[in-house]
Specification:
mainly alpha, 113 residues
């Protein structure tokens, strides 16, 4: 039953990530075509609740999706099971989440630079 829940959770995270990836790519294209500097980009994102929410959601979805995907790869290749597999999965999730959260904070927090 856990495998089914993880499978569904990974698919749900993919559904959340898909429009966020497209939006992120669109923002990059617009920024590059308009010749925005990093200073101009940060002036638009710092202090913005909406940018923090958008990229915070992205970080959570990516962390969940990647941790479950790597869990499957580790299980299939290294035959890791039980507590060790669960611990590794949580460690991957937490590592990705905290790195991503720190990046979101750096880009959206007022005075972070």
């Amino acid at each position: 039953m856990l495998d089914l829940k993880l499978y569904l959770l990974q698919r749900l995270s993919a559904l959340v990530m898909a429009p966020l990836v497209l939006g992120h790519l669109a923002v990059i294209i617009v920024a590059v075509q308009n010749g925005l500097t990093s200073e101009e980009i940060l002036s638009r994102t710092q202090g913005s609740f909406w940018w923090a929410l958008l990229y915070g959601t992205f970080v959570v979805a990516v962390s969940v999706h990647a941790a479950i995907g790597l869990r499957v790869i580790v299980f299939e290749t290294l035959k890791l099971k039980g507590f060790a597999l669960n611990s590794l999965t949580w460690a991957i999730f937490l590592g990705l989440f905290f790195m991503g959260a720190r990046a979101v904070w750096a880009v959206t927090a007022v005075g972070a630079t």
